[in-house]
Amino acid sequence: MGRNNFFQFKQFRVIQEKAAMKVGIDGVLLGAWASLNGAAQVLDVGTGTGLVALMAAQRSNSVIDAVELEVDAANEAKVNFQNSAWFSRISLSVGAFQDFHTEKKYDHILSNPPFFENSPKSNDWKRTQARHSDSLSLKELLEKAERLLSENGKISLILPADKEVRLVELAATLNLYVSRLMWVASDETKTAHRILVELSTVQEERLESQFFIRDKATGEYSGAYRELTKEFYLAF
Question: How is the chain split into domains, by residue range?
C-alpha cells in the first residue's frame, strides 16, 4: 500500500498525512474479519487514523468509541470520523488506554495493538510509539479490555503469529477463551506471520482457519483476500 496523504476506500477516506502508521493490511484484515453481529457497543483501542473504527461503522449499526494515544493520529482520526457517513455513531478519546474511563460495557473490543518487543526502534518517536508495546503491553490491553466487556462480550486482535502462546496464557488468567483463530500468511508457500484472534467470555468451540493474502503463482491478491475486503477496496 502506498504512503499517500490519504487512502480512499469505497465508502470513506482515511487522511493520514501526519500519523506515524498509515493504512496497512493488518488493520484492514482486522476491520473486515471481526464478527460484529449483534454488537451494540464497540470499542477500538489504538484507533490510529480511525481505519478499524470506520470499517466497523460501515459493517454494523454499532455505537463506536475509539481511543488513541498519539495526538497527530487522533487529530486525523477526528477529521476522518467527521467526514464519514457515520460521524454521529463514532466518538474519540485522546490518551492512553490505561487512562480511559467509562461506565460503558462493550459487546466487542477491537485492537490492532503495538506489538513489537525488544526490537530496534525507529528514530521517529511517533512511529515507535505506534509499533512498540512499551506504551501498551498485551497484558495491560487484555486486563483492561476484559473489565470493559459486556456479559457475552468479545475481543478481536491481530498479532504476530509468535504471540499465540503468550496470548492464550494471558487469556486463561482472565477467563477469556479463544473462539476463532485465523493464521495469516503472505501466500500458500509461507508460514503464518500474523494471527487474527477472537476471545470470548464464554467457552465455546474453537474455530481455526488459514488465510493467504496473495496467490503465489500470480502474485495477485488471493480470492479469499478479495472476498473478505471487497466491500472496502476500490479495486475489488
Answer: 6-229
Between CA 205 and CA 203 the distance in angstroms is 7
Locus of grid cell 449483534: 38
Q: Is 66 helix (H, G, I), strand (E, B) or coil?
A: strand
The answer to whether residues 204 and 177 touch, using CB atoms and an 8 Å cutoff, is yes
The three cell numbers locating residue 234: 476500490
Question: Residues 169-221: pLDDT tens digits?
Answer: 999 999 999 999 999 999 999 999 999 999 999 998 999 999 999 999 999 99
- Could you give the CA distance from residue 112 to residue 131 in angstroms, rounded to a whole number? 10
What does DSSP say about strands 106-111 and 41-45: parallel, antiparallel, or unpaired? parallel
User: Residue 91 contacts by C-beta under 8 Å, 6 or more apart in sequence?
Assistant: 63, 64, 65, 66
Q: Which of 73, 147, 150 is nearest to 114 (CA)?
A: 73
Measured between alpha carbons, how far is 30 from 89 in angstroms, rounded to an integer?
A: 20
Which residue, among 61, 29, 76, 77, has the nearest Cα to 198 in the 3D structure?
Answer: 29
Mean pLDDT of 15-30: 93
3-state secondary structure at position 2: coil
- Domain 6-229: top CATH class: alpha beta
Where does 24-176 show beta strands of DSSP type E?
41-45, 63-68, 90-94, 106-111, 149-160
How high is the pLDDT of residue 125?
42
Cell of 29: 484484515
Q: Nearest to residue 21, comparing CAs of 99, 61, 76, 91?
A: 76
C-alpha cell at 91: 466518538
